[in-house]
Amino acid sequence: MKNKYILTGALATLGILIGTAQDMDPNTVPVNLKNNFEQRYPAASDVEWEMEDNTYKVEFEMNAQEHEIWYAPDGNTTKTEQELSEADLPQAIRNTITDSYSGFKVDEVEKTTENGSTTYEVELQKGWMNEKDVIFNADGTVLREKE
Fold first, then answer.
1. Fewer CB within 10 Å: C terminus or N terminus of the chain?
2. How far apart are CA 28 and CA 25, in angstroms?
3. What CA–CA distance (Å, rounded) separates 78 from 29?
4. Which residue ranges form the domains of the chain, and what is each CATH number?
5. Where residue 20 falls among pLDDT bands split at 50, 70, 90?
6. pLDDT, tens digit (0-9, with 9 covering 90-100), for 114-125
7. What residues have CB less than 8 Å from 44, skipping those under 6 apart?
């Protein structure tokens, strides 16, 4: 009976590992994707490719900021994420933070573009233990808040 539980646990773990992103050797990335990426981001460093749910994902750094791009197998970009500084936030978002989140400081910012829509996820911190993740659109409207 004990062996049955061990086998079940091992199979469950294997299923989780198979279902997650798999690192790729850069030489196995389709040429059209790799060329498209290298032409658009020639200054990219620390480039890492992954296969995630039949989508190619590339993570890299450029201008001291982290970036992630998802490509469909046909080479079209499906999603991008970019780390930003507080100064890079649209003024409308900075105004909303000042007006609605008094005493909170911006800790991290991430810009996401997907399906033609751009959102900004801002991690706000007030003191040691009070933290919120707030998702805004470019005009400063709060779309979602997570604590």
1. N
2. 6
3. 17
4. 22-76 (3.10.450), 85-147 (3.10.450.40)
5. low
6. 999 999 999 999
7. 37, 38, 60, 61, 62, 67
